[in-house]
């Protein structure tokens, strides 16, 4: 049975009823046992999602591999064709379509590969401020080049934000947030990125003034293949989820249709990490994830802090 409590999340409860019978006949009432299954159901959903992510990852690697080779030949041949000087306007237009569509296919494959192969992590002491600024510079250039009416605003409340992380992967997270924000603001708007210190964590947020999402959409965005963007693969945020999990971080979105969306990422501060971690040499260790069966679980080097993090509920998407 499910019910909504005022001011709280929906609860799932199991109710068992047994008649209470006394020895010399007659029933003296009923025994009701109530079990709150909310947390179990949530964990079950999470496990199902992990399973799906793992299966998709294996499939993606195989498909991407098979598609890339013929695609390279197509793109190569087309670029040779378009070098022919005497070509009608119409033919040139057709060739442009082939080029554009092969680029799109290539983009899809790149997403797939990031998703299925992106399991090599190199953890280092990195400055999130620098990573964010790098990404925003790229985004700004793109916005200027493509002549969009999107303003990029940054509110960085700190000088530096050190964390133990894989810098390239974190940039990929920032890039995916930005790319989605841009796509959600077809008619222009503002993307505001910020970093602030919050207890033991850094909180990075990307707020856009785009289309926004319904609660039903928001709930599913981190699952693979959930896309409402034209031509989207629905893998960008699945990759984000994977990366954030490997960092023992948290990521979630707040959104309102017509108002915009804010993505929030929390990563542990480097000094907080040092203070709480007793494993040797937290600085600069390479880390490789198990390829199976538990996707997203880093190897033994950080198994203890990870388990601790899981127990504290820090590991979730
Ligand atoms: N900033 C945003 N504003 C509105 N919708 C968003 C935003 N970010 C993500 N979404 C929704 O989440 C979906 C999944 O995003 P993503 O995993 O990056 O896949 P893709 O970009 O390929 O569609 C998008 O298709 C879109 O429906
Ligand atoms: Mg995307």
Structure description:
The chain is an alpha+beta fold and 317 residues long. The chain folds into 3 domains: 2-36, no CATH class; 42-117, Signal transduction histidine kinase, dimerisation/phosphotransfer (DHp) domain (Helix Hairpins, Orthogonal Bundle); 120-312, 2-Layer Sandwich (Heat Shock Protein 90). The protein contains 8 helices and 12 strands. The chain has helices at residues 38-81, 89-117, 128-145, 167-184, 215-220, 236-246, 270-276, 303-312; strands at residues 2-4, 10-21, 27-36, 120-122, 124-127, 150-156, 162-165, 189-198, 201-208, 250-256, 260-268, 286-288. The chain is globular, with a radius of gyration of 24 Å. Residues 278-317 have low confidence and may be disordered. Bound molecules: adenosine-5'-diphosphate and magnesium ion (MG). Adenosine-5'-diphosphate is lined by residues 176, 180-181, 184, 208, 210-213, 217, 221, 226-229, 232-238, 261.
């Amino acid at each position: 049975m499910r019910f909504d409590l005022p001011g709280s999340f929906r609860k799932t409860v199991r109710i068992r009823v047994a008649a209470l019978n006394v020895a010399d006949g007659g029933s003296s009432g009923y025994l009701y046992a109530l079990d709150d299954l909310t947390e179990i159901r949530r964990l079950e959903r999470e496990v199902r999602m992990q399973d799906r992510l793992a299966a998709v990852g294996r499939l993606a690697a195989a498909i991407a591999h098979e598609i890339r080779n013929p695609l390279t030949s197509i793109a190569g041949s087309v670029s040779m064709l378009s070098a022919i000087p005497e070509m009608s306007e119409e033919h040139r237009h057709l060739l442009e379509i082939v080029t554009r569509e092969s680029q799109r296919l290539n983009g899809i494959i790149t997403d797939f590969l990031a998703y299925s192969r992106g399991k090599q992590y190199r953890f280092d002491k990195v400055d999130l401020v620098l990573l964010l600024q790098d990404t925003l510079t790229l985004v700004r250039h793109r916005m200027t080049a493509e002549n969009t009416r999107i303003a990029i605003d940054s509110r960085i409340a700190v000088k530096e934000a050190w964390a133990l992380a894989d810098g390239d992967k974190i940039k990929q997270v920032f890039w995916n947030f930005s790319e989605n924000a841009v796509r959600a603001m077809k008619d222009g708007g503002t993307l505001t990125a910020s970093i602030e210190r919050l207890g033991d964590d850094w909180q990075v947020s990307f707020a856009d003034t785009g289309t926004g999402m319904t609660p039903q959409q928001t709930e599913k965005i981190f699952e693979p293949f959930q896309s409402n963007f034209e031509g989207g693969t629905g893998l960008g945020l699945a990759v984000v989820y994977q990366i954030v999990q490997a960092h023992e971080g948290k990521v979630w979105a707040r959104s309102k249709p017509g108002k915009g969306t804010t993505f929030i990422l929390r990563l542990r501060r480097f000094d907080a990490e040092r203070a709480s971690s007793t494993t040797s040499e937290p600085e600069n260790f390479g880390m490789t994830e198990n390829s199976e069966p538990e996707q997203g679980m880093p190897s033994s080097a950080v198994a203890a802090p990870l388990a601790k993090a899981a127990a504290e509920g820090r590991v979730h998407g």
